[in-house]
Amino acid sequence: MKTDIEIAQSIELKPIVDVVEKIGLNSDDLELYGKYKAKLSFDKIREVEKNPVGKLILVTAINPTPAGEGKSTITIGLADALNKIGKNTMIAIREPSLGPVMGIKGGAAGGGYAQVLPMEDINLHFTGDMHAITTANNALAAVIDNHLHQGNELGIDQRRIIWKRVVDLNDRALRHVTVGLGSPLNGIPREDGFDITVASEIMAILCLATDIEDLKRRLANIVIGYRYDRTPVYVRDLEVEGALALLLKDAIKPNLVQTIYGTPAFVHGGPFANIAHGCNSVLATTTALHLADYTITEAGFGADLGAEKFLDIKTPNLPTSPDAVVIVATLRALKMNGGVAKDALTEENVEAVRAGFANLKRHVENIRKFGIPAVVAINEFVTDTEAEIAALKELCAEIDVPVELASVWANGADGGVELAETLVKTIETSPANYTRLYDNNLSVEEKIETIVTEIYRGVKVNFEKKAKTQIAQIVKNGWDKLPICMAKTQYSFSDNPNALGAPENFEITIREVVPKLGAGFIVALTGDVMTMPGLPKRPAALNMDVAADGTAVGLF
């Protein structure tokens, strides 16, 4: 059996200028990064805004497990299948982070015969967007420390600086550091730390900004810390938003690539969904909606995180709301949610499928709370048995949700045709009536409690003393009308990663509440979720190499 990279390297890519002809673009509209990658110019982005808006399909999943779900694979394969049945379709997905690529999660280019290409470039440095975001973030950190060194005219309390440096790698040793040590020439000593680049507020901003001016406005609104009198200090106080925007002037433009089947794909932006909003850029999704009849996009991790944030944070910034939501699962993952150990997932276990279905059922119910029809996509594995499939179809029928098996990993577009046809039928017969989960005018506590009780199904929210103090400060500063971005383990509805399935009667603890004024939301941190991940005992990097001719080896 070929690996993902072997399949990708066996495909003869078309020049990107040829790929985009089917969506009405030509070489003058592109800024080329070689033959197979390009960015779309702002002139063209503004021009296509006059076009009608197409259908939007959000792909999400059950809570992730080590068994794997294949959300990106289904996203890409579904788009290829829609094109195969005659629907003009584009993809808008996120860029991978080098942290997971070199760590444990893997890339974000799909798999098998449902991939975006060139997958080696996409999974590594791509067009340099991640580096630009890293540089902008750290340039701001350098300006802050220089301001302290040069006399601190703004009266910034160095103990209350909340802006961290970032690097696009998993590096637990950088979570807590001290800077400015040595002689007075080396700056003012203070405690600091690093986040992973995709957790940076600048990444979140890039993915929500609608143009350069909006980008500058959002950058100016970033709160970097507080003065001795507890008043906030913004980037605009440091007068550096223009320089930061300059560093991001190319990174904000959506990247265009292709699938194995030649479907045009925007791959742009990549905030994590367990610690950020987890969605690709508004610019990419909006532009795709104006270029194609169907746009397939995805949100990170399970629907309790990525989909909720897509619908409550990103959708209000889009020209339309999703017409349907596809929820991805595997029978293997359902069995794990039903209590089966990872090393026993290849054995038939119908009862475990039935038990694990509780997780999928809760996600279906949650999506319906937003007034959007759901379709279940089962990412097919060769170990799936007829009895397990029959049981799942029976369970889906009981809650009246369409379900289709998809073999896009093995069969590409052909393996997603039935899913594509069911999706189109669902959109045509069950029109969406989108509504947000909560009103932004509710208090911070009420918004968090709504997410916890309605989406996670917890019974109570506990706010630690630090969180209460931070909420009081948020209210005092008039920031409390922003939406909530929950930072929570992706593995469970609760804040306990080991509570699989559909846990009940649990409480959620909010340990910290952080305003992200530039991004336009408030982050509520739960459990022990980290904004800088660590590497596993055997990181994926140990399998990687490069041949003498420059060909990537071992990249999944």
UniProtKB/TrEMBL annotation:
It is an enzyme of class 6 (ligase). Its EC number is 6.3.4.3. GO terms for molecular function: ATP binding; formate-tetrahydrofolate ligase activity. It catalyses: (6S)-5,6,7,8-tetrahydrofolate + formate + ATP = (6R)-10-formyltetrahydrofolate + ADP + phosphate. ATP binds at T65, P66, A67, G68, E69, G70, K71, S72. Keywords: ATP-binding, Ligase, Nucleotide-binding, One-carbon metabolism. Pfam families: FTHFS. It comes from the Bacteria. Pathway: One-carbon metabolism; tetrahydrofolate interconversion. One of its GO terms (biological process) is tetrahydrofolate interconversion. NCBIfam families: PRK13505.1. Belongs to the formate--tetrahydrofolate ligase family. This is Formate--tetrahydrofolate ligase. It comes from Streptococcus lactarius. The gene is fhs.
